[in-house]
Amino acid sequence: MDLKFLSQSRLFKGIDRNDIPEIFQILQYQSKIYNKNEYIYYYGENVTELGIILSGKVIIEQNDKNGSRNIISTITSGQVFAEAYAFAPDSKIMVNVIAAEKSEILFLTMSGTGAMEATVNNCILPKDKVLVVNGGTFGHRFCELLQRSSMDYQSIDLEWNETLCQRHLAPYEKQGYTVFLVNLHETSSGKLYDIELISDFCKRNHILLIVDAISTFLADPYDMDKYGIAATIISSQKGLCCSAGMSVVALNPEMVERIESSSRNCPYYYDFQFYIENMKRGQTPFTPAVTIAHEIDDVLNLIDKKGGLDSWLSDIKKKCLYFREKALEIGLDIPSYSKSVMLTPVYFKDNKATEVVSYLRDKYSIYVTPCGGKLANSLLRVCHLGDTSFEDIDELVLRLKEVVKSN
Q1: Is there a contact between 87 and 111 (Cβ–Cβ < 8 Å)?
Q2: Residue whose C-alpha is closest to residue 385's, from 215, 138, 249, 205
Q3: pLDDT per position as a tens digit, 211-247
Q4: pLDDT at residue 372 in the model
Q5: Which one, out of 240, 263, 342, 353, has a CA that is 20 to 30 A from the CA of 44?
Q6: Looking only at Cα atoms, what is the longest distance across the chain?
Q7: Alpha-carbon dihedral of residues 191, 195, 200, 203, nearest 10 degrees?
């Protein structure tokens, strides 16, 4: 499938056409062919994906109360549809989407990676010299985004179970780096980097610190002002425990000024200057994920009812430490590196992690998170967020004990 023609689409504005096929290697997408007059979306249907027309023609129609068809628009190859609904997965589409001729449609699912890419595109300038921590799947994703944006960067490469320390940072002291990127909680392994170590390094070297806090926000203590963080990336589906589809990038005044005064050819939808300008009038430039915004509001109100942020974080930590204590008692192997309380990684040196995930799911309907890549068979992860109780943890430990005994 030749996707280079999508460089003419407003969704990929500013992206080199030769980079588009590589971008799709990390996006979640699927393609489907529709025959003439076949419905792509019906009125009232839940929509969770943005559509891009690869070939053919699509009409957007609305039926009035008398049953008459009103064609709202006709869209052709390279154009997008249902973008507003893709970011509001619980809302229902208010029109019919129909193939006007045989058409191939590509569907994209949006997530926190979009916010990572937008932050790279807007907060880092061509003149910058970037240092990025690459200690797992999500650190590597930052490297891929930087590479595809042709940024000047150096990665601090760590093994999955290696702790970032001063000796890793020492070679980069006073070397002219201007931006530091880090996924503070490397979710692929549960590793939590030392924010004080990183912050001190950035402050004494006058480096802008950008943090992906998607998997640490509302689980571990976090303070942008204290640590001098210029930009923070969070998303709705982790610490907030909401539906996936909304991401937030928090900017300090220095970063806002940098963005407003810079000249960048950012993709249309991801242009922060556009967002900042619209925020001044109390609006977003595009239709927001309204239903997810309501979910987030409910969660924030729940945190207040539970006694505030400190109490919320304390409850998560208690469940985390309780599980870790019980897991060690039955002989499970928990890596010794510094970990977020959001989840606990469990290591299986006999490469039975995938087997254990399936056993818990199929026999007891207990779901723990598998890993991907080279850790797929050796590591699983147990999350401590959400409406889980100590009784739930006891049940999980009991079933894990069965696994230990069978070895």
Answers
A1: no
A2: 215
A3: 999 999 999 999 999 999 999 999 888 899 988 778 8
A4: 80
A5: 240
A6: 73
A7: 120
Amino acid letter at 351?
N
What's the CA gap between 81 and 103, in Å, rounded?
Answer: 14
Q: Which ranges in 271-336 belong to alpha helices (H)?
A: 272-279, 290-305, 309-329
Say if residues 380 and 368 touch (Cβ distance below 8 Å).
yes
DSSP code at position 162: P
| pTM, 2 dp | 0.76
Q: Does residue 386 come out as left (phi exceeding 0), alpha (psi in the -120 to 50 range) or beta?
A: left
- Does residue 360 sit in helix, strand or coil? helix
Q: Is the dihedral of CA 125, 228, 196, 383 positive or negative?
A: negative
- Residue 54, SS3 per DSSP: strand
Phi, psi (deg, nearest 5) at residue 307? 110, 5
Residue with tokens 């070939």: 55
| Rounded Cα–Cα distance for residues 131 and 249 (Å) | 20
Single out the residue of 233, 195, 229, 190 nearest to residue 213, CA to CA: 233
Instruction: For residue 124, report the phi and psi dihedrals to the nearest 5 degrees.
Output: -110, 130
Residue 139, SS3? helix
Question: Mind spelling out the 3-state secondary structure of 40-95?
Answer: EECCCCECCCEEEEEECEEEEEEECCCCCEEEEEEEECCCEECHHHHCCCCCECCC
Contact 43, 63 (CB under 8 A): yes
**How many CA within 13 A on the CB side of residue 360?**
22
Alpha carbon separation from 179 to 126, 139, 194, 200 (Å, rounded): 11, 15, 17, 14
Contacts of 50 (CB under 8 A, 6+ apart): 11, 80, 81, 82, 83, 86, 107, 108, 109, 110
Amino acid residing at 190 = G
- Burial class, 146, CB count within 10 angstroms (exposed 0-12 / middle 13-18 / buried 19+): buried
| Residue listed under structure tokens 């689980």 | 219
**Which amino acid is it at 391?**
E
Q: Which two tokens stand for residue 122?
A: 């807007």
**Residue 86 host element (H or E):** helix 83-86
Three-state DSSP at 49 gives coil
At 95 the pLDDT is: 84
Assigned token pair, 381: 């992860």
